[in-house]
Design goal:
Helix content: 40-55%
Distance between the termini: 19 Å
Largest sheet: 6 strands, mixed
Radius of gyration: 19 Å
Low-confidence stretches: 1-6, 15-21
Structural class: alpha/beta
Number of helices: 14
Oligomer: single chain
Bound molecules: benzoic acid
Strand content: 15-25%
């Protein structure tokens, strides 16, 4: 059974063990932190349109981008309470609640976005989603992703020593905080919508970010040194509130799984297609570019592993799967 079918059948089975609601027209509210122009938001809109069409207008989806409903921690609480129906979330907030998801952020677990896509589409990654209903009260429908993580900074970062003491913006979650603490920086957790102003007003010296956001949100206006390090992948997960799930009929659950997964998978395809052009566009700007690999972060990685090999037992299995998928 492939990953998609496995997730679908698990989520359906989870629903079917609970009282199955009757079909009922709904306007689902879907929250996310990315701005309207971002790939994830466009995928959420596309999912809504397709769900409306496939349900012959019975269901619709209202998309709330740019953190309009709150940050991801607040959205997770709303999903748990059933006051929010759906969300496209970074894995960050999930890893704060289920440490095994932190394994997806292991530095250099994958080499590039193609490798990340193969791993996220694997059974091993799909099995992690099965932990979500019991441990968070959310149904994890499937994965999307963003590009590989890079570092954009005001001052040049040419050696590991240059990272020391940098106030470096991170997405708020523990595995990345631990990585940058080990690298000697002062990690500063900030959600995506707050990053531009924090760079502009000097609250941070550098940011952890992907090519797409650096380009689309013009972060390069505020910091002109780019360390191309590809140090982590950045998965996203499409979720439905467990409380809402229980109220849905089996047919509606199946429709949501199929439709949402098609758009999440489309996000992965788009990242694969667009990342090379985004990198080329950034290389063509007047930025200082430096490249780094695993050796650059060797000491930080050793420290990170000392913590996370124990906190996230799934890491071992993910590493084995990543090794098999490296050469496809
Ligand atoms: C970030 O926190 O860096 C981020 C979040 C969502 C999409 C892309 C980047």
């Amino acid at each position: 059974m492939n990953n998609f079918n496995k997730i679908a059948s698990t989520a359906l089975a989870l629903g079917l063990t609970l009282a199955s609601g009757n079909a009922q027209a709904r306007d689902f509210r879907l929250g996310l932190i990315t701005p309207p122009s971002h790939l994830w938001t466009q995928a959420a809109e596309g999912f809504g349109e397709e769900l409306a069409e496939a349900s012959a207008g019975e269901h619709s989806v209202s998309v709330f981008p740019s953190q309009q409903l709150g940050n991801e921690a607040q959205m997770v609480q709303q999903l748990q309470a059933g006051s929010l129906d759906m969300a496209f979330l970074t894995i960050a907030e999930i890893s704060n609640r289920i440490p095994d998801f932190g394994a997806l952020y292991a530095p250099y677990l994958v080499n590039d976005v193609a490798h990340a896509a193969r791993l996220l589409r694997s059974d091993v990654a799909g099995e992690l989603l099965e932990l979500m209903p019991a441990q968070t009260g959310l149904v994890g429908v499937g994965y999307g992703m963003s590009g590989m993580r890079q570092i954009l900074s005001r001052d040049p970062i040419a050696s590991p020593q240059d990272l020391e003491g940098q106030r470096l913006r991170i997405t708020p979650f523990e595995p990345i905080r631990d990585f940058y603490l080990a690298a000697g920086t002062a990690p500063t957790p900030l959600p995506l919508p707050d990053v531009y102003d924090a760079l502009a007003n000097g609250q941070v010296d550098a940011i952890d970010m992907d090519f797409e956001a650096i380009e689309a949100l013009k972060f390069y206006d505020q910091a002109e040194h780019l360390l191309i390090s590809n140090h982590m992948m950045f998965p996203m997960v499409g979720v439905v509130s467990g409380r809402v799930w229980r109220e849905l009929s089996g047919a509606d659950r199946e429709l949501i799984i199929t439709t949402m997964n098609a758009h999440l998978d489309g996000v992965i395809d788009s990242v694969l297609e667009r990342e090379p052009a985004q990198e080329a566009a950034l290389r063509a700007l007047d930025l200082t570019i430096t490249e780094a690999d695993e050796a650059f972060f060797r000491e930080a990685i050793a420290q990170w592993e000392a913590t996370w090999n124990q906190r996230a037992p799934a890491l071992e299995t993910l590493r084995q799967a990543a090794a098999v998928l490296e050469v496809e």
